[in-house]
Design a protein that fits this description.
With 359 residues, the chain is an alpha+beta fold. The protein folds into three domains: 96 residues, no CATH class; 106 residues; 119 residues, no CATH class. It is 47% helix and 9% strand. It has 14 helices and eight strands. A four-stranded antiparallel beta sheet has the order 7-4-3-8, with no helix packed on it. Strand 1 and strand 2 form a beta hairpin. The longest helix has 27 residues. The chain starts with 23 loop residues before the first helix and ends with a strand.
Length: 359
């Protein structure tokens, strides 16, 4: 481990980058400047669901979102979840939250939720209607012209772009139906079809085949362009309080006189140190990414499996105080000096695990 490059933490944005170690004034100012109403709302919803009964939470959250999605309310909720202290002019913050949510609960209890009737029109049906009302309507006009032996120029690609066509099945079906008939005439495959199109000159049929093949080429190009600009779905990273809500850990251990840190502080940190009081195993989690560690259920995620280690301590009372006081670099040197069988951790945290420290 000695001499290895230590990954630097990337500056995080939004709620994940909020300064939670200083004063509440700085924290609240950051929320006001760097976060939006969606993040405020999510913080408050999570707080309400954790601290109120199911019925009370339902009433509180019935009110319009703008009534609670403010930096002020969200800031109080998040700060309290971190178990941080409210001082000075914010010493009555908890009373404010209690009164605020009671007011919202009473207001929400008067709101009757009416189930909206489910729409029978699906997104695919909307797209089909749009195709029929625009491009397919034009193609049927071309077909009408053909019936009276007239031709009509048409830029299918351009019109699909203009009308923002995203579904091509019906268009392709129309093209292929005509192509099959015209090719059967040219190739003399079916006497009935040849008789049906006997009034049309061969040169005209070939011209229409060329136009239809051009339409197919336009459709293929449109499909390729749609794939090229298709949005890549990015999984939204859960907020810290949502990540750790199911985390099982030991809050306090009297034998070793240890107390766990607030688990909400883990997401986004580069290092986590834990101690299993039953097996006496020390685990060092080192992030594999500049975005820091993540928590899912009772598992630590996004740690470097080659650099992170777990091993049994013979004398925890000697090693743990050093883990709590040294820098990450000094801790790596300390671990290298300890003679023990070291393995890569699984990431699982249980109710025998003390969360010693994050960095």
């Amino acid at each position: 481990m000695i001499g290895e490059i230590i990954l630097k933490k990337r500056k995080q944005l939004g709620l994940a980058g909020a300064p939670t170690e200083g004063s509440f004034d700085i924290f609240k100012a950051y929320l006001h400047q760097e976060c939006d109403s969606k993040e405020y709302a999510e913080v408050v919803r999570n707080y309400v669901k954790r601290n109120y009964s199911k019925e009370e939470a339902a009433d509180i959250l019935k009110v319009p979102t703008y009534e609670y999605a403010t930096s002020h309310t969200a800031g109080f909720c998040y700060w309290q979840t971190l178990n941080n202290e409210f001082t000075g002019r914010y010493e009555n913050a908890l009373n404010y939250l209690k009164d605020k949510f009671e007011e919202l609960r009473l207001k929400g209890s008067q709101i009757k939720v009416v189930d909206k009737p489910k729409s029978a029109i699906t997104p695919i049906m909307r797209q089909q209607y749009h195709v029929y009302a625009t491009v397919l309507d034009d193609l049927y006009r071309i077909e009408d012209k053909w019936h009276v032996n007239e031709e009509m120029k048409y830029d299918l690609y351009r019109n699909c772009i203009i009308h923002d066509i995203k579904r091509f099945d019906e268009i392709e079906q129309w093209i292929n139906e005509h192509l099959l008939d015209y090719r059967a005439v040219i190739n003399k495959e079916d006497e009935q079809i040849m008789e049906a199109y006997a009034h049309i000159k061969t040169a005209t049929i070939k011209k229409r085949i060329k136009q239809l093949e051009g339409f197919l080429s336009d459709i293929n190009n449109l499909k390729q362009s749609k794939r090229a600009v298709r949005k890549v779905s990015v999984k939204k990273v859960k907020t810290a309080d949502k990540q750790v809500e199911k985390l099982k850990y030991q809050k306090e251990n009297m034998e070793f006189k240890l107390t766990s840190i607030i688990p909400m502080r883990i997401p986004g940190k580069m290092n986590l140190y834990t101690f299993n009081t039953k097996t006496r195993q020390l685990t060092v989690f080192i992030s594999e990414s500049p975005d820091g560690l993540m928590v899912s259920g009772s598992t630590i995620k996004k740690f470097d499996k080659t650099k992170s280690v777990v091993f049994k301590l013979r004398k925890p009372e000697d090693i743990i105080p050093q883990i709590m006081s040294k820098t990450p670099k000094q801790i790596l040197k300390l671990i290298d000096s300890i003679k023990a069988v070291k393995k890569s951790p699984t990431g699982r945290i249980n109710d025998q695990t003390i969360l010693l420290r994050i960095k």
